[in-house]
Design goal:
The chain is α/β, with parallel strands linked by helices and 317 residues long. The protein is 42% helix and 21% strand.
Length: 317
C-alpha cells in the first residue's frame, strides 16, 4: 500500500509529475505508470490530473496524511537509533546488596553518569539469592555480587576481598591474642595483607556470641564454612540481612561478626573494634559484575561494564 510513498510524496510536494520525475531520476512516463498502477491496486485516485498545478483528491489527502505519519514515525525511530548510538537515551538497572550499593556501585555510577548523563539508572537492593533470581529472570541488567552460577550467569571479576573476624575490644578473648590483633588503621594501609601478620583459627572464638547474616547472603556461607572448618558451629541468636548491620551491632558490643577489608576501609574508623586475619581457605571472596548468560547486551550495558572495568582495572569487553 505504501511501497511507492516516496514517489507519491515527491509528486505532492512538486505538484507536477515532470518535476518529481526529474528529482527522482526516473522518466516521467515511468513515474506516471507507477502511480497509475498503485491507484488501481488501491481502487482510488490520488491526484486530480485535471487541475494545474496538480492537486489531491479527498482520498489522496488521506493517503498523504498517512504517508506523513509514517515518515514521522521513521524519523523518530532514526533519531532514537542515533541517540542510542551516542548514548543520549537509554536506561540500565543495577543491583547489589546494601553495602555493595552504598560503597561499590557509586564508584562506577559516578564516572558512568558523567560520561553519559542522559542514561537513566535504576538501583535495586536485596540479598544475593533474591537478586540472582531477578538477574536470571531479566528483571535487572547487572548484578554486582559475590556468588555466581556459571551455567546461568556470565561474570567479570572486579576485585578480591579478605574476610576478617571483627571483635568488640572489651571482650576478654582479645587479651590472649594481642600478637594477632589489628585495628582499622592497620586495615586501611593493607597491613593485614602482609605475610608478617599471622593468621589465627576462629576456634579461639568458639565460646563467643556470633552475629551472622541470614541464609542467601554470601557472608552467611563464608562465615559458617570458616567456623565449621575450625570444628564448631557458631552460637548465633540473631541473623541480619545486611553486612553493615552486623558490623554496627558488633561495634555496639553485641557480639563477634565477619567483615570484609573493603567494609573496614570504607566506613568511619571505630576504636571499639579489633580485627583478626583468619586462617581459612574461605577467608577470601571475589566481587563480580554479573549478567545473565547469552542475553543481548546493548551498548548501555556494555559501556557500564567497561566503566566498571576501568574503575577496578580489569578487562573490558
Amino acid at each position: 500500500m505504501f511501497k511507492y510513498s516516496e514517489y507519491i510524496y515527491e509528486i505532492y510536494k512538486e505538484k507536477s509529475f515532470t518535476k518529481a520525475a526529474k528529482n527522482l531520476f526516473i522518466s516521467q512516463p515511468a513515474l506516471s505508470a507507477t502511480v497509475k498502477k498503485l491507484e488501481e491496486e488501491l481502487q482510488i485516485q490520488i491526484f486530480d490530473r485535471s487541475t494545474s498545478p496538480l492537486t489531491l483528491t479527498n482520498e489522496g489527502k488521506a493517503y498523504i496524511k498517512a504517508i506523513e505519519e509514517i515518515f514521522n514515525v521513521k524519523k523518530e525511530y532514526e533519531d532514537y537509533i542515533i541517540d542510542i548510538s551516542n548514548l543520549n537515551v537509554g536506561s540500565i538497572s543495577i543491583s547489589g546488596a546494601n553495602f555493595i550499593s552504598s560503597y561499590v556501585v557509586p564508584k562506577i555510577i559516578v564516572p558512568f553518569s558523567k560520561k553519559y548523563p542522559m542514561i537513566n539508572i535504576e538501583l535495586l537492593e536485596s540479598n544475593s539469592k533474591t537478586l540472582t533470581q531477578e538477574l536470571i529472570d531479566e528483571n535487572i541488567d547487572i548484578l554486582i555480587d559475590y556468588s555466581l552460577d556459571e551455567k546461568l550467569i556470565d561474570s567479570y571479576p572486579l576485585f578480591n576481598e579478605t574476610i576478617l573476624i571483627c571483635v568488640p575490644k572489651h571482650l576478654d578473648i582479645n587479651s590472649k591474642l594481642t600478637n594477632f590483633s589489628l585495628n582499622s588503621a592497620d586495615i586501611r594501609i593493607d597491613k593485614h595483607l602482609s605475610d608478617d601478620i599471622k593468621k589465627i583459627t576462629v576456634e579461639h572464638f568458639k565460646n563467643e556470641r556470633f552475629l551472622m547474616l541470614k541464609s542467601g547472603n554470601s557472608m552467611n556461607y563464608h562465615g559458617f564454612k570458616i567456623c565449621h572448618e575450625a570444628g564448631f558451629t557458631p552460637e548465633t541468636s540473631i541473623y541480619f540481612d545486611q553486612l553493615m548491620t552486623s558490623y554496627n551491632m558488633s561495634a555496639a558490643g553485641l557480639g563477634i561478626c565477619f567483615v570484609t577489608d573493603t567494609l573496614v576501609k570504607e566506613v568511619a574508623p571505630n576504636n571499639e573494634l579489633l580485627y583478626y586475619k583468619i586462617d581459612s581457605e574461605y577467608a577470601k571472596r571475589t566481587v563480580y559484575l554479573l549478567h545473565k548468560k547469552k542475553r543481548y547486551l546493548n551498548r548501555v550495558i556494555k559501556e557500564f561494564i567497561n566503566t566498571a572495568s576501568d574503575v577496578y582495572k580489569t578487562n573490558q569487553i
